[in-house]
Amino acid sequence: MKIFIVEDDSVIAGAIEGHLTSWGYECSCAKDFQNILGEFVKENPQLVLMDISLPFFNGYHWCSEIRKVSKVPIIFVSSASDNMNIVMAINMGGDDFIPKPFDLTVLVAKVQALLRRTYDFTSSSDVLEHKGILLNLSDATVTYKGEKVELTKNEYRILQVLFENNGKSVTRDSLMEKLWETDCFVDDNTLTVNITRLRKKIAGIGLDNLIITKKGIGYMVE
User: Fold this and answer.
1) H or E element: which one contains 118?
2) Could you report the per-residue pLDDT of 170-209, keeping only the tens digit for each?
3) The sheet that has 212-214: what strands, in order across it?
4) 127-220 has CATH 1.10.10.10 classification
5) What rounded mean pLDDT belongs to the chain?
6) Domain parsing of the chain, residue ranges
7) Which of 154, 152, 191 is nearest to 173 (CA)?
8) DSSP assignment, residue 47?
9) What is the CATH number of domain 2-119?
10) Global pTM exceeds 0.85
11) Burial class of residue 132, CB neighbours in 10 A (0-12, 13-18, 19+)
12) What is the rounded average pLDDT of the residues 35-42?
């Protein structure tokens, strides 16, 4: 996770950078306060720590500029911690506010919590969709036009790999590696049996031709 620190006090910026780095985060500090947006785009961080009082343009300005191009989480860090500024920070697109002076351990806790909320639930979805077909990974079901069918562990893994590579051929070897993830030998016929059962099961809800055989290669959905 990369964190972009927009703080014009070099002592404070250095302290924040050093502490976050010790926690395993990659940090970069703003240098060109006339072009914060340009630096943000170049750095492509997962979180921004933003002071309010800055040279040239204040933190509210840069927050609104970032919001035009990104939904990245932004935490304001400022001594201007009266209610009006806190409300303004949130209304301008900020996700949290830390008043100065602050404890570095509190800052790290807030950074961790916001990153967890933002990325743990959005980096991957429990539902994959393909042309109106819904594959629910949490309960191993496929739903199509209101009809639902339950899958075995291997069946939903096969569909998961094919959905994640929709439009591309997936080799039999790749599917076997994903399904069994073991050094032990697995009979190639085992995959054929699983594919056959899966095709029969999803045909019952109108998905007769979902899985296409690519002769000599493997399978795909398109």
Assistant:
1) helix 104-119
2) 998 888 887 776 444 456 688 888 899 999 999 999 998 8
3) 170-171, 218-220, 212-214
4) yes
5) 84
6) 2-119, 127-220
7) 191
8) E
9) 3.40.50.2300
10) no
11) exposed
12) 86
